[in-house]
Amino acid sequence: MTTAARLVAALCLAFLAFIGSRYIMTRLMPETTAFGIFLWLNVLLGLTAGWRVLGTRVGRGMANGISAGITATAMLVLWGVLAQAIYEMFRLAMRHRYEGPAEAFVAIFKLGLDFAAHLLDGGFIGLMVLGAVLSGALAELASRNWR
């Protein structure tokens, strides 16, 4: 069911995904990196995580809303790393870099670990935690004020 809390949660996490993606693009990766659909895929994942994860878990108190915001942000980062690893695996598979499907499947996890290693940056982690707390609080406030 469509609620104001779900809409606010989706917009907050989409904005957080946009800001986080721009941080990664400008501060964590080399300037010569071609990002392709990186930014917009992460924004779409942010909308989805906000709507499906955060938006359904608010309305039970501010502490629970903040906790749900942290959970939804963690899911957003996990989905983002996984989606980018799958995309990169397919890109490499089209260039015949793998011997077979099993090697390509294992490569998803290797690529995901490589991508996750880039995210172990204090600024990025701080940005995500702050965004998670604010997103959870705003979604909780929307749940209280607009029914």
From TrEMBL:
Keywords on record: Membrane, Transmembrane, Transmembrane helix
InterPro entries: TrgA
Chain ranges passing through the membrane: 32-54, 66-87, 123-142
Origin superkingdom: Bacteria
Presence of keyword Transmembrane: yes
NCBIfam families in the record: tellur_TrgA (NF033773)
Protein's UniProt name: Tellurium resistance protein
Organism: Alloyangia mangrovi
Species lineage: Bacteria, Pseudomonadati, Pseudomonadota, Alphaproteobacteria, Rhodobacterales
